[in-house]
Amino acid sequence: MISTVISLYVLATLDAMFSGVCAASGRDARIDKRSYYVNAMIHGIGWGQVACLVGLLILTLAVYASVDPGLAVEEMIQVGKRMISVYQLYAAIILLFFAVRAIPNVDIRSMTSTVAFGPLTLIRPAVIVFGIGWGLAPGVQSTVVVAGVLVAVLMVPFRILLNRWFDLVEVNRL
């Protein structure tokens, strides 16, 4: 159980970090943007922790609302394990391209932005929905399904919310 929770937490934190970088992209004209992107990652991770706490609250309420709380926890663990199988592949691909991006070549860095991170950002909502759907596929209690749908509603627009955050920060900076 603990390994499932920790794995999902790490994957959610990585997603928040990636979302922070995506939301910050194209907003700064400096040549050397390392500190800017590190700051964007920190903001993404910070807001991701808020999302994780809200998700935990949703899951806790689902357990307490369930007719059989023990079964709900067992089902959530099984759903989480199935979700991990989807999300770890997506995270591994993103991390692979971050490693490629570490090569100090402008052409390679530009290519990773265009060829990798653009499409990966585009499919992120579908990956979230597919992962939760794959987790819920075997059939679980209705409270677990509702919790899964609410977590999807929380995570799918996360990057859009980060975009709004960076808009506010940028306006206040001017």
Please give the share of residues in helix: over 70%
Number of domains: 1
Outline the low-pLDDT stretches: none
Please trace the helix and strand order, writing H or E for each element.
HHHHHH
Strand fraction: under 5%
How does this model look, in words?
This protein is mainly α and 174 residues long. The chain has one domain (2-173). The chain is 86% helix and 0% strand. It has 6 helices and no strands. It has helices at 2-24, 34-65, 69-101, 106-136, 142-155, 158-173. Helix 3 runs antiparallel to helix 4. The radius of gyration is 18 Å and the shape is elongated.
List keywords for this structure.
single chain, 174 residues, mainly alpha, 86% helix, elongated
Question: What layout of secondary structure does this protein have?
Answer:
Elements: H1 2-24, H2 34-65, H3 69-101, H4 106-136, H5 142-155, H6 158-173
Helix pairs in contact: 1-2, 1-3, 1-6, 2-3, 2-5, 3-4, 4-5
Summarize the structure.
With 174 residues, the chain is mainly alpha-helical. The chain has helices spanning 2-24, 34-65, 69-101, 106-136, 142-155, 158-173.
